[in-house]
Input
Amino acid sequence: MPYGCLRIWGEVGLPLQPEPETERKENLIFKEMSVDEVSRVAELYQDLANYIREETGDEYFDFDAVPVEEIEKGLASGLEEDAKKVFVAVDEGKVVGFIAGEVIDCFLPISRVDKTGYIAGAYVMPSYRRKGILRHLEKMIQDFFKELGLKYAELHVLSLNNAGKTSWESMGYATFREQMRKRLQ
Output
């Protein structure tokens, strides 16, 4: 049960980063993604995209595989930007889940809310689900958004992804707008 829709950041080379602070929960380590973990997170992003394609069966999501290299470039660009973060859950040296967030402009230009936190993607490997990993990662991205003075966090979830909706709702997210579409004949 992936938890959101895929959004990949722009292109840039891999920067050098100091080792980020870590948190532990049972045998898992939770921390900010490092340069060395970009490739693994890109693979998980690809798993998320494939899940979306398979789950919906909708031609709208019928796309060719996104090359891992392109996802890596997008993730790497986020390492250089203060308004973007990826947090990971690591078990025995292997990334088993992630959450990616960024600061975006409010979708409503006339709103008093200027910027909001946006969860661009989140995924936990199937064998690690229902262990509180997403909840812990979401708390980390929420803290990041709060440190930047943001008042809201938003995300997209597919209307037929009941498991994803239930997961996000259990963490306090609620639908506040819906997007509709019509097939043109």
